[in-house]
């Protein structure tokens, strides 16, 4: 256990001990003794108040998302050197802890620590060397924020390692409150290329003024050389540049017609409020960076390209019948994704395959598909929350959903469609839920400098989420 991990666990231990101590009653007389016999209301959070009103506090949360998955492998896939037509794997999609609090009227601290995508391949299987299954957890966020106006979110200024992002609400998702099993990862546009799991070193301003929720950020992206993967090779297809270093400029804006979005954790956007709030937003965002990528045109010199990404979208999350507890969630967005000419990146979430047999395009193994590319994407989702206590008091309810990601990228010959259908069994809202998800995706084969679809494959996943 490294020093950072020890420090995190020490803080948690102290926080929990303070919580326990603060809640101990003092039985100095008969009245206090009788008070101890009264049942204490069930708590749903680990929170320690720093003042009597609770306006100053410190809080800890814990999240675990376990996946149990059957996948039809893309053609040519291998698992530890053996051809594999399908796989079954067990993994941890996300394991996280958050420590945050309003330390004073003007000071807010937010820290997140954890790991992602941990399965039997350990996220970094190397067939030519011994691997290390003790994958290091890391700091996702470490940010301090200054609230300029007391008790108001008109202007908050922050800095550090943070997910405060432009482009879209799904570029900075609150993963504990996802409506579907997983977020559309393409919206985390530079994930693990020039960022740290979508986080960047940034300085930002955010706030809510009337119906407007806004955030703007200046980010210092990481060089591609620090990604831990093989360095890109320049060709006629753009890839992240190996030379030069330029800042990123980002912005995201929401016009909120009804209730206001949650605004406590810096940058994070709620997936669904499960009918508690009445939300309808129009949203727009962007990310831009000078000379972010490079290519070498035929018989030419290295050419550098700006990265320009923007999106527009609508978001709906509101109750239908408050007495019954029914609600809907819907999102529809258009994404313009310009990484430079012919940029394309295959990606498979927690990929269950480790390699390919000879003759298949690199990076297409397992459950991978062209997730990121120069072109455009339309993404939509819809979910329906069924009546409260559908299976009896305390036994939870269901929320079925559908998702669609339709992309037109320069390097694929036809429009790509990736579709998901699933259902959440909400045992205790987002604090305890099972999700059953089926994904249908295309697989690809090389067609000159492009990729052509060769057929389709499916994936079935059960997720169990526990969150407090």
Automatic annotation (TrEMBL):
Question: Could you tell me the keywords of this UniProt record?
Answer: Signal
**Secretion signal, residue range per the UniProt entry:** 1-22
Indicate what this protein is called per its UniProt record.
Porin
